[in-house]
Amino acid sequence: MPEHQRKTYKILTLNQIAHHGLCRFPTEIFQVGKDITEPDAILVRSHNLLNQNIPISVKAIGRAGAGTNNIPVPDMNNRGIPVFNTPGANANAVKELALACLFLAARNLVPALQFAKNLQGDDVMLDNQAEDGKKLFSGIELPGRTLGIIGLGEIGRLVANSALRLGMKVIGYDPQITIDSAWNLSAEVKKANSMEDLLRHSEFVSVHVPLLNSTRQLIDDKFIKLMKQNVTLLNFSRREVVNEEAILTGIATNKLKYYVSDFPSQKLQHQQSVITLPHLGASTQEAEENCAVMVVDQLIDYLQNGNITHT
Ligand code: MLT
Q1: pLDDT value for 3
Q2: Where is the D-isomer specific 2-hydroxyacid dehydrogenase NAD-binding domain (predicted)?
Q3: Which of 71, 97, 279 has most ligand 1 atoms within 8 Å of its beta carbon, as the pocket-test mutant?
């Protein structure tokens, strides 16, 4: 091993996920842990580093995930500290959960599961009560229904292509890129000229934009007003992309049938029409391993060789 690679790097890891990536390198080149002082690098998943003191010793930050909104990126850039993330590495996992939630909403599974758990009596009584459930929770099927996708990055494109395979009509819009530049997107995806155009047609809307100044509170009262009645809105983007007051208005005016969000919310969690998850989109064995490997490779390449890739 060349002499310059013999240095031991101190990596402050605030999540076990790093293990998948680090275990492929010789252990003697790292000191890894939660209590490392004067770290060369910090490796996080969703741990919030905003307004935290980033030690002077830090030369790089790794984020095992696509979004970097938990990292003070402009400050780090000013200090010449690169931030490495993992776009695409967990996209399939997020897509699968978004699709699961389409089915969940279409078949009213959350209230139906609760209803079934609360039934009481012998088997005959349970069967009779189940008859009520059939009426209460009768759902809809997805083929022929229109899914509007806002944000056509890696995840949005995967959701679009899978929804088409389910027989859905798909209409896409991306506030950042022109749809023509969204590679890997089936020609069958209809191009919306505006958000209004997308909302006019969609019975399901799935949001997959990154959190930027331009996307913060993107889903507001105006957006909700433009929707059809009884729409299911999925948010696998970030909590801050949605104005939660507008969601309450959407529920009260029957614009929204369900709001499914991958982010817990104090304001919304007791609403019957709101289904919240504890940010599980990227939580699969495969995605966690992909993210860890991708971020650690970038971090080590930078610490050892000064190379900057994928930022
Ligand atoms: C992402 O930005 O890709 C996700 O927040 C990753 C995660 O949930 O860890």
Answers
A1: 46
A2: 113-280
A3: 279
- Helices 91-106, 285-305: crossing angle, 10 deg rounding: 150
Query: Which ligand 1 atom minimizes the distance to the CA of 17?
Result: 9
Q: What is the pTM of this model?
A: 0.93
Top-tier CATH class for 91-276? alpha beta
Side-chain-side CA neighbours of 149 within 13 Å: the count stands at: 30
One-character DSSP codes across 53-118: ---TT--EEEESSS--TTS-HHHHHHTT--EE--TTTTHHHHHHHHHHHHHHHHTTHHHHHHHHHH
ipTM of the assembly? 0.95
**65 CA to middle of ligand 1, Å?**
4
pLDDT of residue 274: 98
- Residue closest via CA to ligand 1's atom 5 equals 65
Q: What's the CA-to-centroid distance between 219 and ligand 1, angstroms?
A: 20
Share of the chain above pLDDT 90, in %: 83
Burial class (CB in 10 A: 0-12, 13-18, 19+), 29: middle
Q: Which residues lie with the beta carbon below 6 Å from any ligand 1 atom?
A: 45-46, 65-67, 90, 279, 281-282
* Model pLDDT for residues 297-309, shown as the tens digit of each residue: 999 999 999 999 7
Task: Yes or no: say if 8 and 25 are a contact pair by the CB < 8 Å rule.
Answer: no
> So what's the pLDDT on residue 282?
97
Task: Ligand 1, residue 65: give the atom nearest the CA.
Answer: 3
Looking at residue 83, its amino acid is V
